[in-house]
Design brief:
The complex is a heterodimer of chains A (about 500) and B (about 325). Chain A has about 500 residues and is mainly alpha-helical. Helices cover about 75% and strands about 0% of the residues of chain A. Chain A has a two-stranded antiparallel ribbon with strand order 1-2. The chains are: A mainly alpha (about 500), B alpha/beta (about 325). Chain A: It holds the Pfam family TctA.
């Protein structure tokens, strides 16, 4: 009851015209920033900090504006993934896998709507999780030492087979390439620069946003340039948009997926070393393992859109738990929010709930408000977004190229990053020709560093004893899941194939 | 709005590039040489906000995040491209001095910019978990001395970085000759390192007071030594210094700003004066108190001399422990 009255106080704080207006503004801007390739939630929030300061906003209104942008960007990221096969930000990468095929099948409207609903379910449940479980969840975060984090990342990589339905060897190659790229930069465990060739821009490693925009957006532009533009206009783009609301059967089919993915995503968000990208990735690959009996994932299965979207939005909510309760950011965006809290003279940490209840509960109420606003805003806006598909590629592609360049330069202000982006674009173009999936490359770059560092931390702490990696029940459990996830599809997949062959099922040959 | 913000940011950068001769601080800009969310970003944003609140600048300070190379990208950018900008200051800290001292900004030295002023210091501290049997700094250092493998010290900076150096300074002062045996584990930022201390993965934490304030308040961690010349003011007064425990070790992570070398003297003096005034204001005192920052009141030439001295000190420690030759 105490909880409800605190929440009631929170709504009393949040429900002023000014705060509602800020939430609306934040949701709208966030959605747009999320949808633009290159501008993700963390940059979106950073860009609006000066606005919050120059409007002279107090702590609660400023946080309401910025968290609305955060949630909005998490919603918006899916739009360009589905419509253009270009992820708007890192966590939306997994949404490309089924979202784009759905759009190509003429189901763009359904894909956008179902992913909007999944986003809502994910963040709605995560916000409740934040309210009910924040203090207990902190204890979960404390169970994860370096060895456990390493096992978690190993789990992510071992279930990588779930990502692409094409050649497994090619996914493994792509992941290895990503891991290799992650090695670039100063090695924190020794302080020695690796593969930087004396170039100071490479000391901090490659920025994965630059890599994503290059690999996905620019390579798309290059492919388009290579084809005859006239032909592309005539042949492609006979796409229908589909209905703008998902049929009830689809929602029903996706509901268990959304619930499971919200849970997994939320957990990933709570762990400071994991984050939203890992959340959406694990949600997708687990869901594929669990329910993909017909091999439709990766070919436009609505559940393949619902899983990562519920997962990454739940992770966004989950990441607020360590930020508020520990003062430790669980993602890039929460690091920015944390800095804002500090500059508003609020010290996050174990005492935040006791010392600044108005800020915490006002923020939580604002999260609910933003969430409903985003749902209300996103479903009708589906119709507008899908118009993008009507734009002929000869106009759309130059716009994509321009937005990519401006976006990347806008974040870092460095022309070096533009060169790196072009390099990635060319690499993406080449790899697409060989049919190598691009997602594992990004996963490798995104998670490789954290994985390596945690391995080396664990080994250093235990003086070179490798058995430390399987020293706790939690890490043993994670390894068990990882090994099962790796081996099961090998055997089960073979059995399924054999059975299909026996039946002489022509469609069975489609698998692999 | 987003576009407007970017456009303004780009415009500011553009203006700077052509080296406009407009009056100083027309478009005040602060480069934070890291991604949003870190200490440098905080320094820029907090100082920008306070200057505006106090009415010392008319426009909002534009904070440009120019990450890369541990501040090296921003340093090179200022030296090579923004050398005559009058509107620009750049956030710096002990980490900047450390990297300059260790030659980690290839080809750059501290005399290629003008050092403006400090806005405070964050004294280093060494802490253990609340339930740890260790209660004093000598106890911890004895354990390290007898069996270096038994104690893992976590910190938020890379090996050779400031958090690492602080613990080595203390170990050195205690008479541990081969400080390279001290087991240091680098994490991504102080927050993650403290979390691992609470989780029991490591035995000790080295960082800045402000990084761990939340946990100190809640009683989750025990500060066994503050690396300050004397006890801090206010609520941090209860923590003993290393010095009073017989370990003569000091470690201050100062925060401040540098400006382009080619900045006009008028503009330089104006920045020095403004930040000096800000430092003296009661509002800034409050900000410092809330963030556990200790006084460090240096402007202009005095600050320049201070930075030079700290670069020299870090150089000699780094040589001693073999990080540089």
């Amino acid at each position: 009851m105490e909880l409800l009255s605190s929440l009631g106080d929170g709504f009393a704080v949040a429900l002023t015209w000014q705060n509602l207006g800020l939430a609306l503004l934040g949701c709208f801007l966030g959605t747009i920033m999320g949808a633009l390739p290159g501008l993700g939630p963390s940059n979106g929030v950073a860009i609006l900090i000066p606005l919050a300061f120059s409007l002279g906003l107090g702590a609660t209104p400023a946080l309401i504006l910025l968290t609305s942008v955060y949630y909005g960007a998490m919603y918006g990221g899916r739009i360009s993934s589905i419509l253009l096969n270009i992820p708007g930000d890192e966590p939306a990468m997994m949404t490309c896998l089924d979202g784009y095929p759905m759009a190509q099948k003429g189901m763009a409207g359904e894909a956008l709507a179902i992913s909007g609903i999944a986003s809502f379910v994910g963040s709605f449940l995560a916000t409740w999780g934040l309210i009910l479980l924040a203090p207990q969840l902190v204890k979960i975060a404390l169970l994860f030492g370096p060895a456990e984090y390493f096992a978690l990342f190993a789990l992510a990589f071992m279930t990588l087979g779930g990502v692409s339905s094409t050649n497994q060897a090619k996914s493994a190659f792509a992941a290895a390439l990503g891991l290799g790229l992650a090695m670039i930069g100063v090695d924190t465990q020794t302080g020695v620069p690796r593969f930087t060739f004396g170039e100071v821009h490479l000391y901090d490693g490659l920025d994965f946003l630059v890599a994503i925009v290059g690999l996905f957006a620019l390579s798309e532009v290059f492919i388009f340039l290579e084809e005859r533009h006239g032909a592309a206009d005539a042949a492609g783009r006979k796409l229908t948009v589909g209905r703008l609301t998902p049929p009830a059967a689809m929602v029903k089919e996706c509901t268990p997926t959304m619930l499971r993915s919200s849970f997994l995503g939320f957990l990933a968000g709570v762990l400071p070393g994991a984050g939203a990208s890992l959340g959406s990735f694990i949600s997708y690959s687990m869901e594929k393992r669990l329910v993909d009996r017909k091999g439709t994932f990766g070919k436009g299965d609505p559940r393949g859109v619902a899983a990562p979207e519920a997962g990454n939005n739940a992770a966004a909510g989950g990441a607020l738990v360590p930020m508020l309760a520990l003062g430790v950011p669980g993602s890039g965006t929460t690091a920015v929010l944390l800095a804002v809290l500090l500059s508003l003279n609020i010290t996050p940490g174990p005492l935040l709930f006791a010392n600044n209840p108005d800020v915490v509960w006002g923020l939580i109420a604002a999260l609910f408000i933003a969430n409903f606003m985003l749902l209300a805003m996103n479903i009708p806006m589906v119709g507008i977004f899908t118009r993008v598909l009507m734009i002929p590629p000869r106009i759309l592609m130059p716009v994509v190229a321009m937005v990519s360049f401006v976006g990347i330069y806008g974040i870092s202000g460095s022309s070096f990053d533009l060169l790196v982006m072009i390099g990635f674009g060319i690499m993406g173009w080449g790899l697409r020709k060989f049919d190598v999936p691009l997602v594992p490359i990004i996963l490798g770059t995104l998670l490789g560093n954290a994985m390596e560092n945690n391995l080396r931390r664990a080994i250093t702490i235990d003086n070179g004893n490798w058995f430390t990696l399987i020293d706790s029940p939690l890490s043993i459990a994670l390894w068990a899941i990882a090994i099962l996830g790796f081996l099961l599809p090998v055997f089960v997949g073979r059995m399924v194939k054999m059975r299909m062959r026996q039946r002489g099922d022509a469609e069975g040959s489609v698998i692999d | 709005m987003a576009f407007k913000a970017i456009r303004t940011a780009l415009a500011v950068v553009g203006f700077g590039l052509v080296g406009t001769m407009a009056a100083a601080q027309e478009n005040p800009e602060c480069i934070a040489p890291a991604n949003p969310g870190g200490g440098w970003d905080f320094t820029c944003r907090q100082v920008g906000k306070s200057l505006q609140d106090l009415g010392m600048i008319d426009k909002t300070m534009q904070v440009v995040n120019l990450a890369g190379g541990g501040g090296g990208v921003a340093y090179a950018e200022v030296v090579n491209k923004r050398n005559d900008s009058n509107d620009l200051i750049v956030a710096a800290s002990s980490a900047t001095a450390t990297r300059l001292a260790q030659g980690a900004y290839p080809g750059n030295t501290m005399d290629q910019v003008r050092w403006v002023a400090s806005v405070g210091a964050d004294y280093g501290m060494i802490a253990v978990a609340a339930n740890s049997p260790i209660n004093t700094l000598p106890e911890l250092l004895d354990m390290i001395k007898n069996d270096p493998a038994s104690v893992s010290v976590a910190g938020g900076s890379a090996v050779g970085g400031w958090d690492h150096l602080k613990v080595l300074i203390a170990a050195n002062a205690y008479g541990i000759d081969d400080v390279r045996t001290v087991k240091y584990v680098a994490f991504d930022g102080g927050g993650e390192a403290v979390t691992q201390l609470l989780a029991g993965s490591v035995q000790a934490f080295t960082g800045d007071i402000s990084e761990a304030k939340g946990f100190v308040d809640s009683g989750d961690i025990k500060v066994i030594a503050v690396l300050a010349p004397e006890r801090l003011e206010g609520e941090f007064n209860k923590f003993p210094t290393a010095k009073e425990q017989g370990v003569d070790a000091l470690g201050a992570n100062w925060r401040g700003f540098y400006a382009p070398k080619g900045m006009s003297d008028d503009a330089y003096n104006m920045w020095v004066e403004k930040i000096g005034k800000l430092y003296a204001s009661p509002e800034w005192k409050e900000t410092m108190a809330a963030n556990g920052m200790a006084p460090l009141d240096l402007q202009g030439a005095a600050f320049e001399a201070f930075v030079a001295e700290s670069v020299a000190q870090i150089q000699s420690i780094s040589k001693e422990i073999g990080i540089i030759k």
